[in-house]
Amino acid sequence: MPGNASAESLWGRHSIFADRKASQVGDILTIVISESSNTSQSLSNSNSKEGKNTLAAGTGVFSFLAAATASGSDSFKANGSAKNTNTASGNVTVTVVEVRDNGNMVVEGTQSIWNNKNEHKITVRGVVRPDDISYNNTIMSNKVADATLRFDGKGPLNAKQRQGILTQIFNILF
What we know:
single chain; mainly beta
């Protein structure tokens, strides 16, 4: 009796007429990072307090008490402002690590760039809707839900950007 024959497509699970977009665990996708943020804050606080207590001279059994007066005042004033501007751009290719029941995909990836013994690392994690993926298998970073973009660095140059251990201890104590 002859055995069963099975046939598989030469093109895999993708149609030759469809765009090849990430859709399953292990597929890759490029996130186009184009982020900017501006924050500004200005604070002003003022507080003052005055008090006065008077004690009259004692009479009768309390005649030993002399008349006394006490007063005090307290004042506090503080002003401050802060302004912060951040811009990030680039491309990071990530891998689909989970496909949720609704079809959304959890993606994660890291890109390391080494330059003169200094490492610059970009890590991206978030949730992507398949409908937001473009025909060329890319997605803008502002379309990634629950996105975490982390920029880290290590090496001689990055080490000089941090406070020394003694300075950190003095900042904690004082």
